[in-house]
Amino acid sequence: MAAAGAAGLAAALTACGAGDDSSDSGNTGNTGGSGNTGGSRSTGSAGAGSGSAAGTALAKTSDIPEGGGKVFEAKGVVVTQPAAGTYKAFSSKCTHRGCTVGSVADGVIVCPCHNSHFSAEDGSVKKGPATQPLAAAKITVSGDEIKLA
User: What is the CATH number of domain 2-148?
Assistant: First the structure.
């Protein structure tokens, strides 16, 4: 009976991702906001995602609903539109246990593993168990195309 309980616990922990503790994941951008929304249409800051995907087209602006967003699991980013015409990007890796966030709606990015909630505006934690914000990612918007920067 104890072995069955341990197997269930191991399966539950595996669902959280392969990461040990998210604090050692190399996210050095976890202490600041994701400002860079000046004159250019580039948003976010360097940090999340793989550098080899720079310049990769992610979506059309029309694919990202206002107040919502879209998770690009293969690219490791989630793109949001917290206000009309404002696009933000963050790592899609939850800072709690490394799961990929699952959805964005009503200004909230939700991780399905333990129900952590993050702001679609700045990646900050709105509801735990996560305690660290999502790392900002850099994107550019040119016309109707959103690309990793």
Answer: 2.102.10.10
Q: In the sheet that 139-142 helps form, which strands lie side by side, from edge to edge?
A: 57-60, 145-148, 139-142
Output the pTM of the full model.
0.66
User: What would the two tokens of residue 99 be?
Assistant: 């799961």
Contact criterion met (CB below 8 Å) for 136 and 45: yes
Q: Is 33 exposed, middle or buried (0-12, 13-18, 19+ CB in 10 A)?
A: middle
Instruction: Tell me the domain boundaries of the chain.
Output: 2-148
**Cα distance between the two ends of the chain:** 52
The pLDDT tens digits for 2-42 are 444 444 433 333 344 433 333 333 333 333 333 333 333 44
pLDDT, tens only, 114-139: 999 999 999 999 999 999 999 999 99
For residue 145 the two structure tokens come to 């195309």
